[in-house]
Amino acid sequence: MPLIKYRVNLNVEERVMLRDLVSRGKHNSQTVLNALILLNSDQGEFQEHKLTNQQIADTLQVSMKKIDRVKKRCVEQSLEAALEKQKGKRVYRKKTDGDFEAHLLAVSCGRPPAGHVRWTLRLLAERMVELEYVDSISHETVRGILKKTKSSLGNGSNG
Known about the structure:
This protein has helices spanning 12-23, 29-41, 53-60, 64-76, 79-83, 98-109, 121-130, 139-148. It is mainly α.
């Protein structure tokens, strides 16, 4: 028998609340799915049919990782935390600022490098790194900045 790392034990009130959440009202689909996972994962005395994670995954068409994450949040935090959608924990550091965007726009309005008819997003990204405005930048970031400033490469005159 596999080791159960997080054991969910629901009391009668919690089971009733989860059943009500699943059966009526307007709830987010992920909230309902999490409630179904918790109801089926219950190892307490009020659960009639104890299911394995694999049986729950097969029935609800979810991954084993999702079941483990929901159970972990229920055990370590609370029932409410297990039902709610989790916010991402990654923090993205912004590479660009207004000064960088102004320089990018100025470069994009200037003459393209020799051998090129117009600036491409990749050429602009490379030039900004050459000019040491940033350590590295993707052409997609350049695209987003130019789109935000409603700039169009190649239309009109350069210079």
